[in-house]
Amino acid sequence: MNFRELLSDPQEFAGKPIPSHLNRIIRQTVVKLSSNDRAPQIKLSADGMVATGERGYSVIRGTHGVSRGTWFYEVRVVNQPKDSHARIGWSQPFGLLQAPVGYDKFSYCVRSRHGTRFHDSRGYHYQEPYGQGDTLGLLIHLPETHPCAHYLPSTGKHLPLVRFKSSHYFEERDDLKGAQAALTPLVGSKLIFYKNGICQGEAFTNIYEGTYYPAISLYKDFTVEANFGPNFVFPPTGVEYRPMCERAEMLIVEQCLADMLYFIK
Question: N or C: which terminal CB in the chain sees fewer CB atoms within 10 Å?
Fold first, then answer.
């Protein structure tokens, strides 16, 4: 019996909610800054590429994350009013939104002021400051240390399904303490930043294993524009990488594979 026949069977689902396993997660087809995974005070342009802060530090993440391979994206400083700042880098989903990137154990960044690198609220001198007109390049390298199936996304089919307005969502509880306890350094991983095409060296090595999203935190009216490729202003040289824009199609394929494996198992 196919899904259409199953859904049309009045005996099977009459008066009952549609089971979670008959739904699938929708993945965005374009990598951009997320309108959902952000602090509410951050203003986002219609195309999802330009973000402006307001008041204290707050975070916006990209729509797609990576857990293996070497990936790159750029951020251009569009406007930097007096006393405004930014901290830009990478963050796992549990990274706080109402704090700067690099505030917790789940995120890493470089600050515009003094060029300081931050992780877990600890700052260290790293590079020269960056500001209006500068382009910051961000490269992440995550060695593949598990079988391919380990990196497949969740199907969500084991989770309860909830209806909100006109859409359905898989509902999952956050386990922050469990996620913190499970943090393990990924040997060989590294983060490298570039300022206007000039490599600043390794900012962090052996970062915690996990899925990392492009992450931007803004203080006051600092404005930036993200570029997820494929055409970069200052593409890295001497290193093989993939532009973050390629992650969209790759994730759709992985999601389909994960869904098929769910039913096979």
Answer: C
